Amino acid sequence: MDGLLEIDSLTVSYGPNRALASVSLELGAGESLAVVGESGSGKSTLLRSIARLLPCQARIESGAIEFRGTDLVTAPGRVLRSLRGSQIAYVFQNGRESLDPLFTVGRQLDEVLRAHGKEVPPSWGEALLRRMGIEDPGRVLAAFPRELSGGQCQRVAVALSVACGPSLLLADEPTGGLDEEARDKVGGLLGDLNAREGVALVTVTHDIGFAAQVARRIAVMRDGRIVEEGPTERVMARPSQPYTRELIDAVPRTGRTFRRVGDGA
Ligand code: ADP
Ligand code: MG
């Protein structure tokens, strides 16, 4: 396995409250991992720690987060900003909120390239939106965020985050607030980016069904600890923890299958 990300004994607190207690996880280049747990279990804290986007009240007490040989815990701000702009992309829960309401989608996409000092090639935005599974890219490029559905906004947010070709995509509850159809589309998009384009993925979600749809490995988090981790098929079929079984039983039975995009068929 070509190591990309290695989290070693990470402990993070908000004042006296410990949100992560000695969390260790590894991810190889091009791999996918979903971290699953109830609200308050520490998922966002984990993802924000990796991107070093923690709120100021949070304190990394101990541990290391190595990304391609750089320790993100001790790296200077300049290095973190450069990694976030190129190698590590972040998708927030609410796609609409990550877009600027005052500018069209096309302008925001072009801005990302310009901010990286790159020329905008002709039809670039259109091609990018097509890659995101958006069928009418011309209309979406010309639209303001308020003119788009929640699912479209989330796919545009993913487009913005992957525009510069990151090797790691971090997604925090990327389907929160979306209906089932939009959720499947965003799940399919993340699965595609990982399986077909080799972007490594760490997504956190309370929905183990969604986790199984997009990731090859699942880690289950409870009260700031990883209580179970393994290949998706094994965790779903033979969970080692009763807690994991509860999460599986909580998935609504709507005929969703757990087959991932990019797995053939
Ligand atoms: P999740 O994303 O799984 O819902 P979080 O990482 O947001 O979990 O929260 C983990 C724990 O840290 C919770 O107990 C939560 O109350 C606490 N927490 C999260 N953010 C803050 C904050 N900004 N200030 C204080 N406590 C926080
Ligand atoms: Mg959260």
TrEMBL record:
Keyword Membrane: yes
InterPro entries: AAA+_ATPase, ABC_Ni/Peptide_Import, ABC_transporter-like_ATP-bd, ABC_transporter-like_CS, P-loop_NTPase
GO molecular function: ATP binding; ATP hydrolysis activity
Cell inner membrane among keywords: yes
PROSITE patterns: ABC_TRANSPORTER_1, ABC_TRANSPORTER_2
Localization (cell): Cell membrane
Superkingdom classification of source: Bacteria
Keywords: ATP-binding, Cell inner membrane, Cell membrane, Membrane, Nucleotide-binding, Translocase, Transport
Residue span, ABC transporter domain: 5-248
Membrane topology designation: Peripheral membrane protein
CDD domains from the UniProt entry: ABC_NikE_OppD_transporters
Chief localization: membrane
One cellular component term from this protein's GO annotations in UniProt: plasma membrane
Pfam (any one): ABC_tran
Family per similarity comment: Belongs to the ABC transporter superfamily.
Name of the molecule in the record: ABC transporter domain-containing protein
Organism: Granulimonas faecalis
